């Protein structure tokens, strides 16, 4: 804008052209996909599409996917998923203008499936009395446990089967895990000889079946040596 051009050629005096800020009425041929509203899930669902154009438009045509458009020649059609839309779905719009070649743009829409929900414990699923285990669900957006908790993780201390239902925009999925309570150890005492002893004799009592031991005489070793009559417990 505001530029000056000076022209001259043989036999003609110089001619000056000054641009006083005028611009040529040029509008580029463009098509844009402005919005996609909705969800495609494993061959189901629909999305509302919205596109806009600039330039001397003649017509538009949508294509792509295995589903259907309610009006493929509209700038704002609704696309309904087909049975083959099991992965990313690519939808395209081609705009034909009065001047120039057709212009095509595309959008990729994920077509997810119902969630696959899993439960991960933070330790063994067989716990001892008084212990607990944290169960964490994954694979969805929201969760509801069989004990009505709505958090991704729960802490359990009792035996039983715990299930969770996870939900996404594409549906629901479930998982379950069984928690068992281990029995206490079966402790036995063996002696290295008869449990009836003569004065001055001794017998070694050895406990087994556990990890640590505490005898009624406060010994904390697996074996004790006794020389006196009595009842010994561990």
- Given helix and strand content, the structural type is mainly beta
Strand content: over 45%
Q: Which blocks of ≥5 consecutive residues have pLDDT under 50?
A: none
The total beta strand count reads 20
- Describe the main β-sheet briefly: 5 strands, mixed
Model description:
This protein has strands at residues 4-9, 12-18, 30-41, 44-54, 57-64, 68-69, 78-80, 89-97, 103-109, 111-112, 118-121, 126-127, 133-138, 142-145, 153-156, 160-168, 171-181, 188-191, 203-208, 223-226. With 234 residues, the protein is mainly β. The strands form six sheets. It has a five-stranded mixed sheet with strand order 6-7-4-3-10, with no helix packed on it. The chain has a four-stranded mixed sheet with strand order 12-17-16-14, with no helix packed on it.
Based on the model shown, name its key terms.
rod-shaped; 0% helix; 20 strands
Q: Would you summarize the structure shown here?
A:
It contains no helices and 20 strands. The protein is mostly beta strands and 234 residues long.
Produce the secondary structure layout:
Layout: E1 4-9, E2 12-18, E3 30-41, E4 44-54, E5 57-64, E6 68-69, E7 78-80, E8 89-97, E9 103-109, E10 111-112, E11 118-121, E12 126-127, E13 133-138, E14 142-145, E15 153-156, E16 160-168, E17 171-181, E18 188-191, E19 203-208, E20 223-226
Parallel strand pairs: 3-10, 12-17
Antiparallel strand pairs: 1-2, 3-4, 4-7, 5-8, 6-7, 8-9, 11-13, 13-15, 14-16, 16-17, 18-19, 19-20
